[in-house]
Amino acid sequence: MIKIMKANESHVEGISSVCIRGYWSTYGESHSKEWIERVIKDFYSHERILRELTEFNRDWGGYFVAVENGKVVGAAGGGMIDEEVGELFVIYIDPTRRNEGIGTKLLNAVTKQQKEEYGAKEQWVSVQKGNMKGIPFYEAKGFKFQYEKVPEENPTYIKLRHSRKI
């Protein structure tokens, strides 16, 4: 049985593993190896995850994990980007466990935190243009496309901004 819980230090390895494997699965064919390795180093290192588990606040609510038989099979986190506006910053599922409802449970946990603890009434997410794993998921959860954002650091990786009322 899958349990959704607030992550703690014992989940660092599992969060890192799920995020790295999920990132490769999602972007391995559309992004350069150098780009993927840089993102993984910047965001999914053990040091960064450990810091994010101990230094959370309204802007970063920490990680939630989906755990089955002691193993992390999914991870998600978000925070507030304005007074009543939350954002889902990260969500990855073990690539072999997609379409089991794990992502929905994690999104629900982040959304509940943003609504109940921080007073969010709206929620945003960025999804890579062409990400046909993420876009249908978010749209099925009520997110609506708002606009494209072209990152200065790499204009070929266009982000689609979506939002929904919560």
Automatic annotation (TrEMBL):
Superkingdom, taxonomy of origin: Bacteria
InterPro entries: Acyl_CoA_acyltransferase (IPR016181), GNAT_dom (IPR000182), MshD_Acetyltransferase (IPR050276)
Broad class of enzyme this protein falls into: transferase
Annotated Gene3D superfamilies: 3.40.630.30
Pfam families per UniProt: Acetyltransf_1 (PF00583)
A GO MF label: acyltransferase activity
Keywords of the record: Acyltransferase, Transferase
Residue ranges of domain N-acetyltransferase in the record: 2-163
Enzyme Commission number(s) from the entry: 2.3.1.-
Protein name in the entry: GNAT family N-acetyltransferase
